[in-house]
Specification:
CATH architecture of chain B: 2-Layer Sandwich
Chains: A alpha+beta, B alpha/beta, C alpha+beta
CATH topology of chain B: Beta Polymerase, domain 2
Number of domains of chain B: 1
Distance between the termini of chain A: 60 Å
Oligomer: heterotrimer
Order of helices and strands of chain B: EHEEEEHE
CATH class of one domain in chain A: Alpha Beta
Shape of chain A: elongated
Strand content of chain B: 25-35%
Number of strands of chain A: 4
Helix content of chain B: 10-25%
Structural class of chain A: alpha+beta
Largest sheet of chain B: 4 strands, mixed
Strand content of chain A: 15-25%
Number of strands of chain B: 6
Order of helices and strands of chain A: HEHEEHE
CATH topology of one domain in chain A: Alpha-Beta Plaits
């Protein structure tokens, strides 16, 4: 019969301090290549609509006529990056979570 | 690719499956597929990592005798098939009356193929709570 | 006189909604009726509406804890239907991610079990180690839970030298931490009081009820689908972890030891990692029927595919391990005491989202 088997870890944790961070004051930087949020470089986009066709959750809407439009619903996006792979002009990319959209506060 | 080891009928279904179980076959699951003209019911069994599949062709309006009396593990999957395909399964040890997965106001038999009809217009159960 | 007590769908020990209607005689459970369907989403039907490449991402979302294994099984099925060869490096990378997923799932299950019998400290320690595995997954694939790194014909991302070093470093830490935590799980008096001899499932009953995974292996059944040698498991030589007692303790032991086995597997997979392409390009649409089985953290999963030559599948069926374990769980719960029900359910490690799809 053994009791207090976790005693060693408890003491170690007491000395080492907390394993958590003081979020949001201290943030862990994202790993390179994290699929945080979808970004577009509009100047390169040719509005071909390939991304919208590949999107599994219908989060993208692209029209060429009468007006060129690339519309993205953030809340539908599942961050699978299928559109990034499909883009022929490589104007889509996955950015870290912390990066802001141009019109964002 | 899937190999179908045998084709069974409604008449010999019970005896064929009760003959399989003592040979050391483990019941894995059942699969129902809507083939428009009829339903394909597959019984999957396993022995030493080899799958043994029996196929049963069921007419669209026929009832399926349950094997849950022979093999208790078939209980849930038979109830699921009853829910999703609207096939009446007779002789279930525990019958959920088409409400294992679906609620009272859910579409009835949502997995059935109705040509030209989308899911949203599938009939819903009568008297459901809203 | 008997009393009916509803256990769940909201209960402190349950991470996901499932209800058991327990019929009690005093404190003893006489009979039990499961009620599922709280999280049914009809994913199999949605899969028929999307094209088969989009389905890869959809299928991954059946479950959060075995998501990579789901997408892997799905891709294997489509590859078999369309006879697409998979490059060897992709097979090894799939094994690495699958085993990372197994570790994180088992650590989650062990933590939840500790939580179920009220050992909060052990629960937090296990989840602290699990966080390292999540980091390893985010570093290599870009997602913590939804890896989305498996695609039809191979994998989408490579693991480079830096990432490999990071993963191995994390594994070293996890091994150290989990070894000492497992000692508590295996030997502590209070843990043994709650698990030894509780919820016994005999070998014969486990086989007859169709139990799979750690539930079956805890009852002495040698049954691990990795033995059939899919992906790169053929070259990695797997020895199934088997315990014979069949109680909650035995099932927990299986998980404790499988974590160690998976760490070892990842190291060997990294050592043998061959150089090749990551992905085979393909054309056309799937047609015909196929059945694929894989070993998930909770047991064997079965996928049935029927394609008709168009880009939409005609039928996709998923039989998840918990679905097969529920009849066995009912057998265990019968004749046990009411306070033990929570521990027994968590020792099976039910994943309800998987079950109902």
């Amino acid at each position: 019969m053994r009791v207090f088997t976790l005693f060693k870890e408890i003491m170690a944790n007491l000395v080492h301090g907390p394993a958590t961070r003081k979020y949001p004051y201290v943030r862990r930087p994202d790993f390179p290549g994290t699929r945080g949020r979808l970004m577009i470089d509009e100047s390169k986009c040719i509005f071909c609509g390939l991304c919208a066709r590949k999107c599994p959750s219908d989060a993208l809407e692209v029209t060429r006529k009468p007006d060129q439009m690339w519309k993205f619903d953030q809340y539908k996006c599942i961050l699978c990056a299928a559109c990034v792979e499909a883009c022929p002009k490589k104007c889509l990319r996955m950015a870290p979570r912390t990066e802001k959209y141009p019109d964002e506060e | 690719m899937m190999t179908i080891n045998d084709v069974i009928t409604l008449e010999n279904q019970q005896e064929r499956i009760s003959a399989l179980l003592p040979q050391g076959y483990r019941f894995v699951t059942m699969t129902a597929v809507d083939s428009t003209t009829h339903f394909d019911i597959y019984y999957h069994f396993d022995r030493d990592y080899e799958l043994y599949t029996l196929q049963l062709k069921l007419d669209r309006d026929a009832a399926l005798p349950s094997i849950s009396g022979l093999c208790f593990a078939a209980l849930l999957v038979e109830n699921e098939i009853q829910d999703l395909f609207g096939i009446t399964v007779t002789g279930l040890v525990l019958d959920y009356h088409q409400h294992l997965l679906l609620t009272k106001d859910a579409p009835v038999k949502p997995f059935c193929r109705v040509p030209g009809v989308s899911v949203s217009t599938v009939e819903t159960a009568k008297g459901g709570e809203q | 006189m008997s009393t009916i007590v509803p256990f769940g769908p909201q209960h402190p020990v349950l991470p996901e909604p499932i209800q058991l209607c327990l019929e009690l005689e005093d404190e003893r459970v006489v009979s039990v009726i499961p009620v599922v369907g709280y999280v049914h989403r009809g994913l199999e039907k949605i899969a028929e509406k999307k094209d088969f490449i989009q389905d890869t991402y959809l299928i991954e979302r059946i479950c959060g804890i075995c998501s990579f294994m789901h997408s892997m099984s799905y891709c294997m099925g489509i590859e078999e239907l369309m006879s697409i060869p998979v490059p060897p490096r992709a097979l090894y990378l799939r094994v690495i991610w699958a085993e990372l997923h197994r570790i994180h799932s088992h650590l989650l299950a062990l933590g939840l079990l500790a939580d179920a019998f009220g050992f909060e400290n052990l629960f937090m320690q296990y989840w602290k180690s699990r966080e390292r595995i999540m980091d390893a997954m985010e570093c290599t694939t870009g997602g913590r839970v939804m890896l989305s790194s498996c695609c039809i014909g191979g994998v989408r991302r490579d693991i480079d030298e830096n990432q490999k070093k990071f993963v191995l470093d994390q594994l070293k830490e996890v091994e150290k931490e989990v070894t000492s935590l497992n000692r508590t799980m295996m030997e502590d008096y209070s843990v043994k009081q709650r698990t030894v001899g509780i919820g016994v499932l005999s070998k014969e009953a486990a086989y007859a009820q169709g139990a799979v995974g750690p539930t079956a292996r805890g009852s002495g059944l040698v049954m691990d689908h990795r033995m059939s040698g899919y992906a790169a498991y053929r070259e990695l030589a797997i020895e199934p972890v088997v315990e014979t007692a069949g109680d909650c303790y035995a099932r927990t032991m299986v998980r404790c030891r499988e974590v160690m086995q998976s760490i070892d597997l990842i190291r060997r997979a990294f050592a043998q990692l061959p150089d090749s392409e990551l992905k085979t390009p393909f054309k056309g649409n799937p047609s015909g029927e196929a059945v694929i089985r894989c070993e998930q953290p909770r047991g064997e999963v079965l996928y049935y595919f029927r394609g008709n030559g168009t880009d939409k599948l005609e039928r996709l069926r998923v039989r998840t391990p918990t679905f097969a374990n529920i009849p066995a769980m009912l057998t265990m719960v019968q004749n046990c005491q009411l306070p033990d029900v929570g521990v027994i359910i968590i020792s099976v490690d039910p994943c309800v989202s998987c079950t109902e799809r």
